[in-house]
Amino acid sequence: KALRAYKSTLPLIGIFPVGVTNGRHSLLPSRGQVVSYSGAKSGSVGAPLNPDHTHFVLVDNGVEGGKAFGSEIQLRAALEAYISRCKGVPIVQLVVQGGPGTLQTVRATAEALNPIVVLTDSGGAAEAIHEYVLNGALPERLQKFA
Question: Radius of gyration over alpha carbons of the chain, in Å?
Answer without folding.
Answer: 16
